[in-house]
Write a structure and sequence with these properties.
With 334 residues, the chain is of the alpha/beta class. The protein has helices spanning 4-7, 10-22, 25-32, 36-50, 66-93, 110-121, 147-154, 203-207, 240-248, 258-266, 303-312, 315-323; strands at residues 99-105, 138-144, 160-165, 174-188, 211-214, 234-237, 254-257, 271-273, 281-289. Belongs to the LysR transcriptional regulatory family.
Length: 334
């Protein structure tokens, strides 16, 4: 018996597609430039290798059996994958990475990030298939917190990190640029006990109340702890939205980026309080590592990463990444 892997070739699957589409072996043979007997022989080879009937011999038309329908559906999917692989190989040869991973800190605007992703997918490299939109590079976003954003880059799990602390010392091969300054405010719910205090809150007063904190996502680097007092009761969550929810529910108090809670403050859902300790303004940046995509004459950085870095050179984009947490940013402004 013939080996199924040897007969399930792209040519055989394409032949099945033509026979099903034209409705007869004769019509399919004319389209393929073959004699009907050659197609009949090839179909019998498929049937022998798979040990199934693909066409109903009782019909004058080329009517597929249930097994034939399944082979046709899966065959079409496999042919699409073959085409996709071929196109992806071509794109890699022209400098487009197969995948680009971006680590994003929890303080970065998700609205703006998705606006940039939309703009990235809207591209179509010259010479690519005109019926397919986008550069073909698979984007992967990683949500990280504090040192975890930097760790994802230096450990090779990300190609670009947005929202890293500017106090970091980049290793060889990693570039670091300023994104901007992110102001933090200390907030509580209106019915929190600290909301009634009319003076600058001392550390001793803070110690008597639970803090809400977001856990650092670093697995190997030393996790960062920001604005927590030794011995203070802490409610730890995994994301910035979860921290905001806890603050709104009066489950604790804490420091948080002002743009992320600006609308809650304006609506009176959260109250900004003055504290004695120095006000925190985080200097944030973005960092990347270059990717070799070919020989000596090829650029040392993939075209997808280069495109993202071009967007980050815009002052408007950098500001939106830090500030635009509630309102959508018009695509043309990025």
């Amino acid at each position: 018996m013939l080996n199924a892997r040897n007969v399930l070739t792209p040519e055989a699957l394409a032949m099945m597609d033509v026979i099903a589409r034209t409705g007869s072996f004769a019509a399919a043979a004319r389209e393929l430039g073959k004699v009907p007997s050659a197609l009949t022989y090839n179909v019998r080879q498929l049937e022998d290798a798979l040990d199934v009937l693909l066409f109903d011999r009782r019909s004058r038309q080329a009517k597929l059996t249930a097994a034939g329908e399944e082979l046709l559906n899966e065959g079409r999917r496999l042919l699409e994958q073959v085409d996709a692989v071929a196109n992806r190989v071509k794109r890699v040869a022209t400098g487009w990475e197969t995948q680009l991973t971006v680590a994003v800190d929890g303080a970065i605007s998700r609205v703006t990030m998705f606006e940039i992703c939309e703009a990235f997918y809207a591209q179509c490299p010259r010479g690519d298939d005109p019926d397919r939109s986008g550069p073909g590079t698979r984007l992967r976003l990683r949500n990280e917190i504090l040192a975890g954003t930097w760790e994802a880059l230096v450990n090779g799990q990300a190609d670009l990190a947005i929202g890293v602390g500017m106090e970091q010392t980049p290793p060889a091969g990693v570039q670091l640029q300023t994104l901007g300054t992110l102001p933090f405010v200390f907030v509580v719910a209106p019915h929190h006990p600290l909301a009634a205090i009319d003076h600058a809150i001392t550390d001793a007063e803070l110690m008597r109340h639970r803090a809400v904190a977001v856990a650092d996502s670093a697995q190997r680097l030393a996790p960062l702890t920001v604005n927590l007092l030794p011995g203070q009761d802490v409610f730890t969550v995994s994301t910035m939205p979860a921290k905001i929810e806890a603050l709104l529910r009066c489950m604790g108090c804490g420091f948080i980026p002002e743009p992320m809670v600006r609308e809650h403050i304006a609506a009176g859902h959260l109250v900004v309080k003055t504290v004695q300790r120095p006000q925190l303004n985080a200097r944030m940046g973005y960092a990347w590592r270059g990717a070799v995509v070919g020989g000596a004459r090829k650029p040392q950085m993939g075209l997808a990463l280069r495109w993202w870095l071009d967007q980050l050179e815009s002052a408007t984009t950098r500001k939106a990444l830090l500030q635009m947490h509630a309102s959508r940013v018009p695509l043309g402004s990025l």
